[in-house]
Specification:
This protein is an alpha/beta fold. Helices cover 41% and strands 11% of the residues. It has a four-stranded mixed β-sheet with strand order 2-1-3-4, covered by helices on one side.
């Protein structure tokens, strides 16, 4: 009789364990919601890039050598200030970068300016900028136009 009382007491005992299944379900549902909504939030952001303020003409920078200008046209072609009538393709870009690296190593004041058309593919301008910076060309700048006053 004693053993039957003990078995019924064991059945009525409270469980001291936490049931984690509902927490896992809620976590997975939240994860799915965030995975779906994250790309939508990123695409909804519109960016209007600012112009640059006009430089004071009284402050002139002293530059002994003229800058080497590389132009990216709206068609994605590259032109240099030395040969503006000849266009370079993306395949010939490595030769141009090698030439610029050699010139910058010979002359510390050698500067490169990248002039990208407003309608030019943004990736081409950035690709050229990163190529020059990764090859240790110290003076690389982007050319901008002063913002128009309204």
């Amino acid at each position: 009789m004693n053993s039957s009382l003990r078995s019924s007491r064991d059945k009525k005992r409270l469980m001291a364990e936490i049931n984690v299944v509902p927490y896992i379900d809620v976590t997975l549902v939240l994860l799915i919601i965030f995975m779906i909504s994250a790309p939508l939030v990123h695409q909804a952001i519109t960016v209007d890039l600012p112009g640059t303020p006009e430089v004071d003409p009284s402050v002139e920078s002293v530059q002994l050598t003229p800058p080497f200008i590389i132009t990216v046209t709206r068609d994605g072609l590259y032109h240099t200030s030395e040969n503006p009538n000849e266009h370079l393709t993306a395949a010939e870009l490595s030769l141009l970068v090698a030439e610029v690296v050699a010139r910058s190593q010979l002359n510390e004041e050698f500067s490169v300016i990248i002039e990208g058309d407003r309608e030019a593919p943004y990736g081409r301008v950035v690709h050229l900028f990163v190529l020059l910076k990764n090859n240790a060309v110290p003076n690389v700048s982007l050319m901008t136009q002063p913002e128009e006053e309204a």
